[in-house]
């Protein structure tokens, strides 16, 4: 840790702790050449910038990237400017566009040295630094596994060049992995591990397969990927992204275009972009025996909240009670052993502790995204319900157990 890191005050009227915290969910904003800089010329036509109705945007396979409203990120929303919305305190019924506040892009959003300085000011000892629009790419390429793999490799090369996967203990920036092609995924895992990656990141959702029925992420065909990650002690982060679940909205009379934060009442209630994909993905991993075959595998779910977890516990418990012969071990024990959870700030963190245990809770501020917190240490108020000892686990010790100093 930098000797300049301080425990940053969050304000006289806000609770704080007297130690540096660990943050499992911060983000960078990708530059325009994050894919093209290292992309094989063979695939250059797959991703391109274009002006559409006076706005600069990204086209992938000829379709507009909609996971973020402005992929240039200049201007960009201020950190935490939608906190009131996500705490369900929009009592005036404002539209998102009327709640968000904008600013010019800040140096720390794209520059590693500036980010380290900001971490020092925030009192954050280590952060996991994650993609912004990166996790919206895979779904748009699902019919082309070859191009998907090439684009992910190009993106990961850019990431290593600008941020480093794990140059020190301050910033852990996981390369993105797609399971669209098992052999290519194995090769990419080998490549990034050789370069020092300590974690990888996947989007929540099913595996794309243009040739037939999508396989489970726990299908034995992917065991080469999971074995490499488990045996190397590499943490697997599963993060919200375009899971492709908007296709189900058409069955209920809704539009199917993925538009990030924009939603209708029904899409908000169904939570097809957040709770449904991670519920299904974790159920598949457990029920299809992934952790039985790879007992050293460690998974962290980030920016997916924890509201889905109690119901998953309930359903796993019921399934185990009905058909214990179909499981190699108690699925609840497997879930608790292998999975760490970063709750949303609007979640009930004490309820998360009740089902998953205090040693499996992580802090994820989502800084500097507008749906996140204004500052990472603002989370202290939401974690106080845990008490001092368990709060310290959630704000620091649990992440150290995953990616602390070696």
The percentage helix is 25-40%
Within CATH, the superfamily carries the name Metal-dependent hydrolases
Sheet of most strands: 4 strands, parallel
Counting DSSP E segments of at least 2 residues, the number of strands comes to 12
The averaged pLDDT comes out at: 93
Oligomer: single chain
- Highest-level CATH class: Alpha Beta
Strand % is 5-15%
Structural class: alpha/beta
How do the strands of the widest beta sheet line up side by side? 9-10-11-12
Radius of gyration: 20 Å
Order of helices and strands: EEEEEHHEHEHEHEHEHHHEHHEHHH
Distance between the termini: 13 Å
Tell me, what's the shape? globular
CATH topology: TIM Barrel
Annotated CATH architecture = Alpha-Beta Barrel
Pfam family, one: Amidohydro_2
InterPro entries: ACMSD (IPR032465), Amidohydro-rel (IPR006680), Metal_Hydrolase (IPR032466)
Keywords: Lyase
Domain Amidohydrolase-related: 115-398
Which descriptors apply to this entry?
ACMSD; lyase; alpha/beta; Amidohydrolase-related domain-containing protein; TIM Barrel; three-stranded parallel β-sheet; Metal_Hydrolase; hydrolase activity; 13% strand
């Amino acid at each position: 840790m930098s000797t300049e890191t301080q425990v940053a005050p969050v304000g006289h009227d806000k609770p704080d702790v007297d130690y540096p915290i660990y943050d499992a969910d911060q983000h960078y904003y990708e530059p325009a050449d994050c894919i093209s800089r290292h992309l094989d010329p063979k695939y250059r036509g797959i991703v391109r910038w274009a002006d559409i109705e006076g706005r600069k945007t990204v086209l992938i396979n000829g379709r507009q990237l909609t996971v973020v409203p402005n992929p240039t990120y200049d201007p960009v929303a201020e950190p935490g400017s939608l906190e009131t919305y996500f705490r369900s305190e929009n009592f005036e019924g404002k539209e998102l566009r009327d709640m968000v506040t904008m600013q010019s892009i800040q140096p720390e959003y794209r520059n590693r040295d500036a980010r380290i300085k900001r971490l020092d000011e925030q009192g954050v000892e280590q952060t996991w630094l994650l993609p912004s629009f990166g996790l919206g790419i895979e779904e748009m390429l699902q019919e082309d596994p070859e191009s998907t793999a090439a684009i992910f490799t190009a993106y990961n090369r850019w990431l290593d060049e600008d941020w480093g996967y794990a140059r020190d203990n301050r910033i852990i920036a996981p390369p993105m992995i797609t399971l669209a092609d098992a052999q290519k995924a194995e090769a990419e895992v080998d490549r990034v591990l050789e370069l020092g990656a300590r974690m990888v990141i996947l989007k929540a959702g099913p595996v794309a397969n243009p040739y037939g029925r999508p396989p489970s992420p726990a299908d034995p065909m992917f065991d080469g990927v999971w074995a490499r990650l488990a045996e190397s002690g590499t943490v697997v982060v599963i993060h919200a992204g375009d899971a492709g679940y908007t296709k189900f909205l058409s069955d209920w009379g809704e539009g199917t275009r993925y538009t990030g934060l924009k939603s209708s009442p029904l899409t908000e209630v169904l939570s097809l972009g957040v709770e449904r994909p991670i519920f299904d993905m974790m159920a598949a991993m457990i029920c299809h025996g992934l952790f039985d075959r790879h007992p050293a595998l460690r998974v962290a779910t980030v920016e997916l909240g924890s509201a889905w977890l109690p119901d998953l516990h309930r359903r796993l418990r019921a399934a185990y009670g009905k058909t214990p012969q179909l499981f190699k071990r108690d699925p609840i024990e497997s879930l608790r052993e292998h999975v760490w959870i970063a709750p949303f700030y609007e979640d009930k963190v004490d309820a998360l502790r009740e089902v998953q245990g205090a040693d499996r809770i992580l802090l994820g501020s989502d800084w500097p995204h507008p749906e996140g917190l204004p500052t990472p240490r603002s989370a202290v108020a939401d974690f106080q319900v845990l008490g001092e000892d368990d709060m310290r686990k959630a704000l620091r010790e649990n992440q150290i157990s995953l990616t602390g100093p070696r």
